[in-house]
Design brief:
By secondary structure, the chain is an alpha/beta fold. It has a single domain (5-253), classed as Aldolase class I (TIM Barrel), CATH 3.20.20.70. The protein is 43% helix and 15% strand. The chain is built from twelve helices and eight strands. It has helices at 16-33, 49-56, 83-88, 99-104, 109-121, 134-138, 142-153, 159-162, 183-200, 203-208, 222-226, 243-250; strands spanning 5-9, 39-43, 62-66, 93-96, 125-130, 166-169, 211-214, 233-236. An eight-stranded parallel β-barrel has the order 1-2-3-4-5-6-7-8, surrounded by six helices. The protein binds phosphoenolpyruvate (PEP). Phosphoenolpyruvate (PEP) binds next to strand 8.
């Protein structure tokens, strides 16, 4: 049975104290209210990581992740943070290839392949984001875009390495826009992603891969999205900044 995951992406929000306070609230709610086997993950700015990991001790249903990592192990890259540094905080996950990184920081599939290698080498699990823009969907290129993102970003990995990857399908037109993909649209792409994985690796690997949906998910639409056979949870932006909303999304898997 593949793992069900609901991951929050705080993006560039919350100062140090605000982050600790929101995380404490979420961790307590997870402890009191989560009755299933699902995993909650909070992907915070780097400055919070170490403290959040300390707060998460003893709560096995909540883990901590970063939102980016540099592709090189170390060196003269002023302002950057390495995978080894992230791992040293005790964080377990790293979001890679978020559309905001692709759009505003020019991250392409080749760079993301290199980042994935470094992140895996350092014992972290990538939450690897893929998804088409509105123009690409309107031009009916979405399947091709996703296939290329998988092939160029991830399919160089060995079967064992790929087993550490969590995928997130995030249609760019649905991120932060209030426009959610319909459950049918999301399921269609998730099934396509799983088929690509089966073709590249094998059916068992495909069946074991957790594929999250991201894009304006909230407590209202999450039940229908998560009921789809190939949707194994969510990557949640805006709603992860409100403890009640985030928890209600996590609890869909109770
Ligand atoms: C995201 O940033 O990954 C995301 C899905 O954001 P939102 O939920 O706000 O659309």
């Amino acid at each position: 049975m593949r793992k069900k995951i609901v991951a929050g992406n705080w993006k560039m929000n919350l100062d140090y104290n605000e982050g600790l306070s929101l995380f404490s609230e979420i961790a307590n709610m997870v402890k009191d209210e989560v009755t299933g086997q699902q995993q909650a993950v909070i992907c915070s700015p780097f400055i919070h990581l170490h403290s959040l990991v300390q707060l998460a001790k003893g709560y096995d249903k909540i883990a901590v992740g970063a939102q980016n990592a540099h592709q090189n192990e170390s060196g003269a890259y002023t302002g950057e943070v390495s995978a080894k540094m992230i791992r040293s905080t005790g964080a377990a996950y790293v979001i890679l290839g978020h559309s905001e990184r692709r759009q505003y920081f020019g991250e392409d599939n080749q760079l993301l392949a290199a980042k994935t290698d470094t992140v895996l080498k350092n014992g972290l699990k990538p939450i690897f984001c893929i998804g088409e823009t509105l123009d690409e969907r309107e031009a009916e290129q979405h399947f091709d875009v996703i296939k290329t993102q998988l092939q160029e970003g991830l399919f160089h990995l060995s079967t064992e390495e790929f087993g550490q990857v969590v995928l997130a399908y995030e249609p760019v037109w649905a991120i932060g826009t209030g426009k959610t993909a319909t459950a049918e649209q999301a399921q269609e792409i998730h099934a396509f992603i799983r088929e690509q994985i089966a073709n590249q690796y094998n059916q068992q690997v495909a069946d074991d891969t957790t594929i999250l949906y991201g894009g304006s998910a909230n407590p209202k639409n999450a039940p229908e999205l998560f009921a789809q056979p190939d949707i194994d949870g969510g990557l949640i932006g805006g709603a992860s900044l409100k403890s009640r909303d985030f928890l209600d999304i996590v609890k869909v898997f109770n």
